[in-house]
Amino acid sequence: MKLPVPMTMAQIAGFVGGTPHGAGDTQVTGIAVDPLEAVEGDIALVIDKQLIAKMKDIKASVVISPVGTEKVHPDRAMILVERPKMAIQKICTALAPKRFLPEKGIHPTAVIDPTAEIAEGAQIGPHVVVGPQTKIGAGTVVMPNTVIGGKVVIGEKCLIHPGCLIADYVKIGNRVILQQGASIGSDGFGYTTEKPANAELLVAGVKELPDVRQPLLKIPQTGTVIIEDDVEIGSNTTIDRATIGATVIGAGTKIDNLVLVAHNCKIGNDAIIVGQTAIGGSCVIGDRSILAGGVLMKDHVKVGKDSIIEGGAAVIREVPPQEVQVGIPAIGAREYFKQLAHIKRLPKVNDEIKELKARLVQLEKQILEKSLKS
What we know:
By secondary structure, the chain is an alpha/beta fold. Helices cover 20% and strands 27% of the residues. The protein has six helices and 39 strands. The longest helix has 41 residues, at 333-373.
């Protein structure tokens, strides 16, 4: 990727908040996507241990690396940073291409209910539908083919990408981003049967189950969804409305693509929910917790603040604050890897047991022979 204009290492260091090491006037004309494919004139991000170990193979004129790298590679021209990802964030923010947003005002093809209130400065794109008594704040951008229901409240400076679906009564705060195809406020998955269902009887220990139809009666989902300020929701993620009350996504939380948040969940502030995670109904996720990719959560489970659930884990019981859990079912990471180490030793333990049994048989035989002789 080429820079808009050539820059010196010192200029880039000032921009990203780093310290130049080496010749500050070294010229940079581009950014290497892959550090190992960098050429002269590039700047490369060399921030993990594997790449730092291959520094001699990186042909970039300048590298951005963590503080301390200069001690291992003193002859390299580099920009030293305390927080490498912050350097990446600043560079990508500066070089982000212009998005093609709708013009200010309401596009002629948009269908806006006469009772809706669109603030001055909002941008409503082609084929957007806005329902009755909905309010959209100043500076909010609604991109094409988005459908917004009735009595929805959307705050200021939000960015709603194409094809989003926002159901009736949903409340969205300020500076919220909804990526393509996000679905907010669909009905929660709630059903019951007139009499105890076979699943209930089975769990209760009943063996003889009736072989008859048991119609599933829909429980009306009367609640809503509240999305607080500075939240981002990924593409094709679904957040269900509450059965009663509200499903709440706390301020600053970031939710990846293809995530399911079921009815009545409460997700705290600044949490991270990674793709293909499914959170059962009425779960509580603490502030700053991280659910990595593919996590599955049973209904009514609480995850404490600052906890980390590793990818692919299945959470079926409460997670204490500040705990790292992994596995199926999820348990503390230390205990999990301790158990895994024991499992790996099982073949050796099995061989040792076989050997001990053979020796015991031999010992019993010797004792018996000695007894008969006496």
